[in-house]
Amino acid sequence: xxxxxxxxxxxxxxxxxxxxxxxxxxxxxxxxxxxxxxxxxxxxxxxxxxxxxxxxxxxxxxxxxxxxxxxxxxxxxxxxxxxxxxxxxxxxxxxxxxxxxxxxxxxxxxxxxxxxxxxxxxxxxxxxxxxxxxxxxxxxxxxxxxxxxxxxxxxxxxxxxxxxxxxxxxxxxxxxxxxxxxxxxxxxxxxxxxxxxxxxxxxxxxxxxxxxxxxxxx
Length: 218
Ligand SMILES: [Zn+2]
Known about the structure:
InterPro entries: MKRN2OS-like, MKRN2OS-like_C, MKRN2OS-like_N. The protein has helices at 116-130, 149-163, 171-199; strands at residues 5-10, 13-17, 41-43, 56-61, 76-81, 87-91, 94-98, 106-109, 202-205. By secondary structure, it is α+β, with helices and mostly antiparallel strands.
């Protein structure tokens, strides 16, 4: 069971922890019987169970450390779920259909709940796409550079976009706009968890508060 991170503010600091303590780790003031100025907020966990996110793009770090310096390369494994949470992913042996193993990953939904037609066709599309010759290891072999799990998922996403009459994404666009922001968030979250596990708290200066009337020049 994963612990969740909460943030509260005191002493002009943002204090991240797993449990709000009885006293402020900065100034030692006791919180018992008092209220914090602002309620603690929970920091959303960027990881979820990929098998429970249908029709999604999944990123699973090979190791947690590989999230840190992800550059769009091959240290991450990516896959696509069907409507039942089976993860289709391309490996050296061809396309695998995983029923487990993706319990902790970053999931990016690819369809909106009202896209009924697409959802209806999804499993067929995915199965058909995955049986194309290009993913047959006897026909074309896996290549770390340009024929890997990332190409497989991106090509599939582009096929889906084409059915929606939308333009294809380049590998760069996909990486920059979809993947990197989420990877960064996940990496930051892991750092927080490590710090907290080590020192109980992770404390940073609170960002300056914008008071009424300031910074609202639009
Ligand atoms: Zn304090």
